[in-house]
Amino acid sequence: MDIDLFGWVVIASSAVVVGMSKTGLPGLGILPVPMMALAFSSRESTGLLLGILILADLFAVAYHRRNARWRHVLRLLPAALAGIVAGYFGLGYISDQQLKPIIGGIVLAMLGLNYWRTKAGGEEAPIPTQWWFAVALGFTAGVTTMMANAAGPVMIIYLLAMRLPKIEFVGTSAWFFFAVNWLKVPFSAHLNLVTAESVKLNLMMLPFIALGALLGILLLKRIPQKAFTVIVQILAALAAVRLLF
């Protein structure tokens, strides 16, 4: 890849942001999607970002190895795998540029629904526990992560609805995406989104990913639970608006 100075700055910054999102602030995870699209083609940015995400996942699951609520991870994975397969075939018909506003609209609608639910019912607002809720969000996460690496806000909606404490919130998200991103590898390799060149470049970004992971851990320890919930909702909303335009 012929990368100019701007490209190096973008990919290094994205690596730091991804590292932070994996260990501390999940809402940040969507931001590298438009960042990478500024400096690389759609196909290049998708493959490069997947490699960065997988490397950052290693830091996240190592740190949060005991913090996952496994019933939520296992509940979402079958539908997510179906979504990945659908996204793989969908890449032949829908571009990531066409998908982005759809993702943004879905996330904003879900945030609005969650706000209305908690506003109407307060802390005792009913939590959607029906099977279709996990299936719908798991499938949507699978499609969006396969086509645009943009499933973070969808996962945030699910975990907010489950009212997980912030540590378990991040740990559950980390293990879910660790599994999902590895499931995407064979599909992405078949589409030539992941190549030997992209893997080499990903490995060069390891120091920046590690820096971001450390910053995420430090931030997570210092942010109160209520502030954490507000921050991830705001970041998800901002990212959704960015995807719309």
Supply database-style keywords.
11 helices, mainly alpha, 0% strand, 80% helix, 245 residues, globular
Describe the protein's architecture and organization.
- The chain is 80% helix and 0% strand.
- It has 11 helices and no strands.
- Helix 1 packs parallel to helix 10 and helix 5 runs parallel beside helix 7.
- The longest helix has 26 residues.
- The radius of gyration is 17 Å and the shape is globular.
- It starts with a helix and ends with a helix.
Summarize this structure briefly.
This protein has 245 residues and is mainly α.
Tally of separate helices = 11
Mean pLDDT: 85
Tell how many strands the DSSP assignment holds: 0
Number of domains: 1
- What does the oligomeric state look like here? single chain
The shape, in one word, is globular
Radius of gyration, in angstroms, nearest whole number: 17 Å
Low-confidence stretches: none
Helix content: over 70%
Largest sheet features: none
Order of helices and strands: HHHHHHHHHHH
How are the secondary structure elements laid out?
Layout: H1 5-23, H2 32-39, H3 42-63, H4 70-90, H5 96-121, H6 131-148, H7 152-161, H8 166-190, H9 196-204, H10 206-222, H11 225-244
Helix pairs in contact: 1-2, 1-3, 1-10, 2-3, 3-8, 3-9, 3-10, 4-6, 4-8, 5-7, 5-11, 6-7, 7-11
